[in-house]
Structures are given as structure tokens and as C-alpha cells.
Amino acid sequence: MPMSRPLNVLFLCTHNSARSILAEAMLNHLGEGRFRAYSAGSSPRPNQQPNPLALRALEAEGISPAGLHSKSWDVFAAPDAPRMDLIITVCDNAAGEVCPVWPGHPASAHWGYPDPSNVEGSEDERLQAFRATLAAIGRRLERLVAQPPEALRHESLAATARALAQEERP
């Protein structure tokens, strides 16, 4: 049974500059219209922008970074925001914070990834950390996209997303 609309997925992290940006772009790339991904941060810094190394990692994989920008999760708690079906925290800080009340009571899961922004070294070493994080996110998202429709229904979605978090530790 085809879905009547794409499954809306919101990826959350503290600053919305690396992991959540990578996840948003990757799911929109892999989702083939069945998914619509967004990202936001619990406390993005003033004038926060996506990390340039995150954008380079995406481009290296042939994924367009067009339209990606950092934003607060408050944008998605507003009454006129798109209704989310699934919210995934991708950093431990955001997972431990008190989230807004999301319209529609979406399913939730935590998929923790180390912050590639914290890697020290040459620019090439730091870029490699972003590429490794993108690859880890991509493997999990490939499994999400491959799920049968019944696993993506509202009543099953949280269990499906949480099971994917247990399958592979980054």
C-alpha cells in the first residue's frame, strides 16, 4: 500500500551544524520521495551555519548541500510547521534535553554519533571524520529506507527506528 505523503523525519542535534545536517541531506538523497527530512538544533549559536566540512563531505558523496541551513527546533514546534512522523536525536546532548511538545506526537528514537567537529588534526583528517560520520549515518538510513511499509506506520515507527539504533553502533 503506497504512502499518501512522504514520511517527515526531523533530525536533532545541539547546534544543527554537523550530524543533523548530514542526516537531513542523506535521507533526502536516499528517500526517493518516500521521506522528507529536516534538521534543527536545540540551541544553535547566533548566526550558526552548517560546518563547511559537513558540506564538503556531502559534496564528495554527490549529495547537494543546497538549501541546508542551521535553525532552532522551535521552528518545528510551531502550529504551522510540517507535521513530523519521526524525530531522531543524533547527539547525546539533544537526546537528554527536554524537547518541545511536537504537533502530532511523532515517534522518536536516538541514534548517537560522535561529533566530527571535535576531531583535531589536519583539514584532511577532520574532513575524513565528517565523511566517516556521513557513512555511518548513511548505513542506518539505507536500512530505514528499505523497511517495508508496515514498519513505517505510526504504530510501528518508534520500534523500527529504535531497533535500527541497536543494529549498528557507530
A few lines on this structure:
By secondary structure, this protein is of the alpha/beta class.
Largest sheet: 4 strands, parallel
CATH architect. name = 3-Layer(aba) Sandwich
Mean pLDDT: 90
Query: Approximately how much helix is present in the residues?
Result: 25-40%
User: What series of H and E elements makes up the topology?
Assistant: EHEHEHEHH
The first-to-last residue Cα distance is 33 Å
Work out the strand percent. Answer: 5-15%
Structural class, by secondary structure, is alpha/beta
Shape: globular
CATH homology-level superfamily = Response regulator
Would you identify the regions where 5 or more consecutive residues have pLDDT less than 50? none
The CATH topology is Rossmann fold
Give descriptors for this structure.
170 residues, alpha/beta, four-stranded parallel β-sheet, arsenical resistance, Protein-tyrosine-phosphatase, Ptyr_pPase
What does this structure look like?
By secondary structure, this protein is of the alpha/beta class. It has one domain: Rossmann fold (3-Layer(aba) Sandwich). The chain has five helices and four strands; from the N terminus they run E-H-E-H-E-H-E-H-H. It has a four-stranded parallel sheet. The termini are far apart.
How are the SSEs ordered, and which strands pair?
Blueprint: E1 7-13, H1 19-30, E2 35-41, H2 52-60, E3 86-89, H3 92-96, E4 107-110, H4 123-145, H5 154-167
Parallel strand pairs: 1-2, 1-3, 3-4
Helix pairs in contact: 1-2, 1-4, 2-4
Protein name: Protein-tyrosine-phosphatase
Keywords: Arsenical resistance
GO biological process, one term: response to arsenic-containing substance
